[in-house]
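Contributing new records

If you add data, match the layout below exactly. Sequence lines come first and carry their own label; structure lines follow with theirs. Keep one chain per record. Anything else will be rejected by the validation script.
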Amino acid sequence: MTVSKRRRGLTVASALLGGVLVLSACSGGDDSSSSGGGGDTSQAKADEAAAKKSSQAEIKITPKDGTDNASINNSAAVTVSKGTLTDVTMTTTDGTKVAGELSADKTSWKPDTQLERSTTYKVAAEAKDTDGLVAHENASFTTVSPANSFIGNFTPEDGSTVGVGMPVSINFDKAISNKAAVQKGITVSSSSGQEVVGHWFNANRIDFRPEDYWKENSTVTLKLALDGVEGASGVYGVQQKTVTFKIGRNQVSYVDAKTKQMKITHNGTTIKTIPISAGSPENKTYEGVMVMSEKFKETRMNGATVGFTDDDGKGEYDIKDVPHAIRLTNSGTFVHGNYWGAKSVFGNVNTSHGCVGLSDTKGANDTGTAGYWFYTNSIVGDVVVVSNTGDKTVAPDNGLNGWNLNWADWKAGSAV
């Protein structure tokens, strides 16, 4: 009897254990049966969750989180797929909000203004899909620093009217080693259809001009698309800008140091002749084509700043109120009024330290002087051609004087 009881106990335990094992292995089947068949299964729920996840709004923030040296112009943006944006907040680390614009279809957002350099920005975005499910995304990035970016200072100014000799001159605040990449980001065109080519004078300066002077009354457009362009290793452009300027009438003046006369022409026709005094035999005036780069009703001229000093190191001259001065070179060549010299020298004797002098009066207010007439009838970008001085031709990069290079030599200085 004892043995029999033991066997019955083993039999019951085995049956119970078998029952547990059956229940564990078939729990899903039993759930289905209890719901009447054809109901939700674990796999169905998983598929439903996956479908909901795939249809949920997907937000993308650029630049990506953690980016350094981000563009200050075009890089910042928020976009969404499979939904619409409901909120975008962009702030600096100190909490200053950046205004932005949401697209009409609410699928993209961008800042309204250019960002600041060397600034960290935080972006928080929210979106909803068609089922009302909410998605969130956050990112932080830092814009390019001044040390890792370059800017080109250009002339002439936007909206200005200049003479036919005015080149587009761009001086970069960092040395450019990737000249081709930078030049490809600059476009200069004219309404006249003239071919315009860039010429690098050095690692910081590129000028653009056509083969011949600009056509009078044309419009020139400068486009800078330098944002994100790597100008040198780890140094990127930040400018995205379009500039237009007008070309005025065709005025070219011809200075002859031998006859000591200056002829002013419009489209090749002489409209006025003015007696001048050019550089003395000891201090000859440069020859060549020169472009007016600045105008001053009055300015100071100190010989010490251009190497004309006496034994004590003081300037051989220091005139604080030179009237009607027009700059032709960076090294100090001007066409200017002269009130201190004898009136008889103009048209007769070359006496200057290298400038072209015109008869004038002190105070720059006498409208009847040659200095006043030439000043008021000239604009930046007008051309002055100097000859018969006995000196060398002015260097093409001494001022805006690239016209002293022939077209083949000019094009040889292009990087593209």
